[in-house]
Design brief:
The chain is an alpha+beta fold. The chain has helices at about 15-25, 40-45, 60-65, 75-80, 85-90, 110-125, 180-185, 245-260, 275-285, 290-295, 300-310, 325-335, 390-405, and strands at about 10, 30-35, 55, 95-100, 105, 130, 135-140, 145-150, 155, 160-165, 195, 200, 215-220, 230-240, 240-245, 265-270, 340-345, 355, 375-380. The chain has two domains: about 1-195 and about 355-405, 3-Layer(bba) Sandwich (FAD/NAD(P)-binding domain), CATH 3.50.50.60; about 200-345, Helicase, Ruva Protein, domain 3 (Orthogonal Bundle), CATH 1.10.8. The relative contact order is 0.19.
Length: about 400
């Protein structure tokens, strides 16, 4: 039993877990990380397609706004460890970073392997023990105090346990919701969890004809009376059976819960950078000597124009003034209010993150410690907090892991 006793047990070897372990080890605590896979940081390795968008250049206030009402929960974590401190930390362990677009921060190598190797080196340097193939199945309590964990093989003891198991996204990388069960078994509440940051499938099949096209600054909203306030804008990519792209990945968190309630979720897209019908009509009048196809080529790729004109049965070689009244109306509507119906998705198999998790009201935001069990902490994606693409979620993992690591005692 003696060699199984530590000051801190960290469950999970992602960004949050490793940061928590390193931070606690620097403070002199003995730390062990338990990872159920045969290697560490599986999901971190896959982040950003392997390029690893670590964080972004927003200040803390702007950063929190992108997490909506849950953003304020992050304040203490960001105050302790924000994007500037993360960049400095990476530099200190030998990972140089840059922001090629002035916003997203990547390792200069654009490879997550660079980060993982540096983190592994730091774990060894600080004598953090890492045991893989150790699936934690339960937490060991004494009254309302944490005393350790049980795995499928062993039992480990510590007065501090940090759960950093992540969500349900990418089960092939080990995400099976283990942490939710651990939390629930000791009295925590888990909000409904849904796949997020993922492509969506549509009822319309014409999308497959446009799969080579990316449309920028598309406005999108849900065409349901109760949810019309849910809007987004960004780049969209058509696929064989639906839509993806940054705006869709971000907006998916709003749509996936609705698919449980409705068989399909109707969307309205404005493909011409938010221009309304009057603005579009003014543009058309400025180029009245051109054909309909030539006019819309000033706004959209050829393939998109031709497919849409075919959908509404308008001759692309006609001039606008030659169209009938009904054809003119259909022309204005198809480009400013394109209807699209979402009918499904690939579930957690393709979800980059999870919406939902351990209820925030049960966690102390100043320490990441449970308000129910003494010595039990949570950090990263397991909590009911998620943000858009652009380094938000990874920064949150590092920040919350850091706060948990400096809070144990």
């Amino acid at each position: 039993m003696k060699d199984k006793k530590y000051d801190l047990i960290v469950i999970g070897s992602g960004a949050a877990g490793i940061m928590a372990a390193l931070t606690a080890a620097k403070r002199g605590f003995s730390v062990i990380i338990l990872e159920k896979l045969s290697f560490i940081s599986a999901k971190l390795k896959a982040t950003g397609g392997g390029k690893c968008n670590l964080t972004n250049t927003l200040n803390n206030e702007e950063f929190m706004e992108h997490f909506k009402s849950n953003g304020r929960f992050m304040r203490d974590a960001l105050n302790e460890f924000d994007s500037k401190k993360l960049v400095k930390f990476m530099e200190d362990i030998g990972v140089k970073t840059h922001a090629p677009d002035g916003f997203r921060v990547f390792p200069i190598s654009h490879s997550s392997s660079t980060i993982i190797k540096a983190l592994e080196k730091e774990l060894n340097k600080l004598d953090v023990k890492v045991e893989c193939k150790q699936k934690v199945v339960s937490l060991v309590l004494e009254d309302k105090n944490i005393k350790g964990v049980k795995t499928l093989k062993d039992e480990y003891f510590a007065d501090n346990v940090i759960v950093a198991t992540g969500g349900l996204g990418y089960p092939k990388l080990g995400a099976e919701g283990d942490g939710y069960k651990l939390a629930k078994d000791v009295g925590h509440t888990i909000s409904n969890v849904y796949p997020a940051m993922m492509p969506l499938k549509t009822k319309e099949r014409w999308v497959s004809k446009l799969k080579a096209d990316t449309i920028s600054k598309v406005q999108i909203y849900i065409n349901l009376k109760k949810y019309k306030k849910l809007k987004a804008q960004g780049d969209i990519i058509f696929t064989d059976n639906g839509i993806r792209g940054p705006v869709i990945l971000d907006f998916a968190r709003e749509i996936t819960p609705l698919l449980e309630k409705y068989k399909e979720v109707p969307l309205i897209l404005n493909l011409i950078k938010g221009k309304n019908q009057d603005e579009l009509l003014n543009l058309i009048k400025e180029h009245s000597t051109l054909t309909v196809k030539e006019i819309f080529l000033k706004l959209l790729p050829l393939n998109v124009v031709e497919v849409f004109l075919e959908l509404i049965n308008v001759d692309k070689e006609k001039k606008y003034k030659q169209l009938s009244g009904s054809e003119k109306l259909k022309l204005l509507e198809i480009f400013t209010k394109t209807p699209l119906n979402v009918i499904g998705h690939d579930g957690f198999e393709k979800a980059m993150i999870t919406r939902g998790g351990v209820k925030l009201k049960e966690i102390n935001p100043k320490t990441m410690q449970s308000k129910i069990i003494n010595g039990l902490y949570f950090c990263g994606e397991i909590l009911d907090i998620d943000g858009p693409c652009g380094g938000y979620n990874l920064q949150w993992s590092f920040s919350s892991g850091y706060l948990a690591g400096i809070s144990i005692c």
